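REQUEST ID: PR-0412
SUBMITTED BY: lab tech R.K.
PRIORITY: routine
TASK: structure prediction, single protein chain
INPUT:
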Amino acid sequence: MRTNNILIDNYFGLLSGLGRENKIRLIARLSNSIIEEKNNKTAIIDKFFGSFISDKTAEDLIEEINNSRK
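STATUS: complete
OUTPUT:
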């Protein structure tokens, strides 16, 4: 945690010389990256843990699984 605070302080020192408009743009980009990160995590979860969609009945799927076993 302390390392993060030092890193944040260093970035702040570096970026404090930016003009008002550039600071606003930076804030917008950081905010968007947080939103995108959240959306990407949700998309990944949905991709791997979403519901299974098929036109086959449960019985057909069970039969297919059983027949594919060696």
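NOTES: The mean pLDDT is 84.
REVIEWED BY: pending
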